[in-house]
Design brief:
By secondary structure, the chain is mainly alpha-helical. The protein has 13 helices and four strands. It has one domain.
């Protein structure tokens, strides 16, 4: 498996754009196109891009775990206590997201102050709002600390981090049992429970048993991603004929096509699990290295699009709120186009800022670690 997968990077970008369009559908009412006089509903299932991100997160987590286990087994690295390994992995993941989240989050608060969306009584209300948004600023909202909705789309990040913190030590400790037995069973059971009781597993704000449904959804779909890595690894070591690879390539593109079609469609939510399985299979085949097209996709332009996906996702409410707040009289299609333009512009600005914040945090951690190692011993 290559270090970066160009197909997946492009799909990350595409699904980020689809999610933005879905939120335009929800907020602006851009919910249909007119072609040849026919009204065609679109974007009713645009949220499905989140499923893709959960699966990919699980796959990359499993890839990291497998690499560490192999390194320790071969004696190339020293065994590290499980709790410490978990914290190291999650801290790296957290910093890589948090660095790019700061600018759009602060900008959204400023925009809310300017448009007077967050207060009526004066400075006291603004200070109280700042205080209330602290849990959301640190991605704690899906623990139940939902006091504000500054950047509501970040529910996905909060749910993902909680789920990964739970799953990482389990998968690290029981890798083969989880990837081959427990993971697929747990994933299907959770998704089936949500589908049976609520008709969908995509309701992010529903409280289920002792937590948000979105956290259970994240656990299930990240588990699918974990299992997808092991299946992809298994396929990568098998011999396939050219005919086999052509069939696998066709299935891979078909699965992505089904997921994209469903995202733009108005089909019932009962088909979510069917589409998710198709999508997961496509991800497996993409990472197996057994399908055609790698030379075309594994190029710098594909990696660049993938790099845009997180900033686009994080900046979309800036573009949406700006258009809805100041340009709401324009036609819906024009508003949607402007949301995409503004979101892209904000993302372009946020990337260098996020890079600098990320590097500053990493440098601070290295300096702190160096100082601890070289501090005089005090017995």
């Amino acid at each position: 498996m290559t270090k970066k997968n160009g197909k997946i990077e492009v799909m990350r970008f595409v699904f980020s754009v689809i999610i933005i369009l879905f939120h335009c559908h929800r907020s602006i009412g851009f919910n249909h196109l007119v072609l040849a006089g026919e009204r065609i509903p679109v974007l009713n299932r645009g949220y499905f891009g989140v499923e893709f991100f959960f699966v990919i997160s699980g796959l990359l987590m499993a890839k990291s775990i497998h690499k560490k286990r192999k390194s320790q087994r071969l004696g190339l690295s020293k065994p590290v206590e499980l709790g410490r390994q978990t914290v190291r992995y999650m801290l790296k993941k957290y910093i890589s997201i948090f660095s790019y989240h700061i600018l759009p989050f602060v900008a959204l608060i400023i925009l809310k102050v300017i448009t007077r969306d967050i207060y009526e009584g004066g400075a006291k209300d603004v200070l109280q709002y700042f205080f209330n948004c602290i849990p959301e600023f640190f991605f704690l909202q899906k623990f139940g600390f939902t006091y504000t909705n500054v950047d509501v789309i970040e529910w996905y990040i909060s749910a993902m981090l909680i789920a990964m913190m739970v799953l990482y030590p389990i998968v690290m400790k029981f890798y083969y049992m989880y990837t081959r037995v427990v993971g697929p069973l747990l994933a299907l059971y959770i998704l089936g429970l949500l589908q049976y009781n609520y008709g969908t597993f995509a309701d992010q704000d529903r409280w289920v048993l002792f937590g948000y449904g979105s956290v259970f959804r994240a656990i299930a779909e990240i588990s699918l991603g974990v299992c997808a890595f092991e299946l992809a690894r298994f396929l990568s070591h098998r011999y396939f004929t050219r005919r086999d690879k052509r069939i696998m390539t066709a299935v891979e593109y078909l699965g992505f096509g089904v997921a994209l079609f469903y995202s733009f469609s108005s089909y019932t939510s009962r088909y979510e699990i069917h589409v998710l399985i198709f999508l997961t299979l496509s991800v497996v085949l993409s990472f197996s290295g057994q399908t055609y097209g790698e030379k075309f996709w594994n190029q710098s332009w594909a990696y660049a699009l993938g790099r845009f996906s997180l900033p686009l996702y994080l900046c979309q409410l800036l573009g949406l709120n700006l258009v809805c707040g100041f340009l709401g009289d324009l036609p819906k299609t024009a508003q949607t186009a402007l949301v995409l333009v503004f979101t892209l512009a904000f993302a372009l600005v946020s990337i260098p800022v996020g890079d600098r914040i990320y590097q500053w945090i990493i440098d601070k951690r290295k300096t702190t670690k160096y100082n601890k190692m070289n501090a005089p011993y005090e017995g």
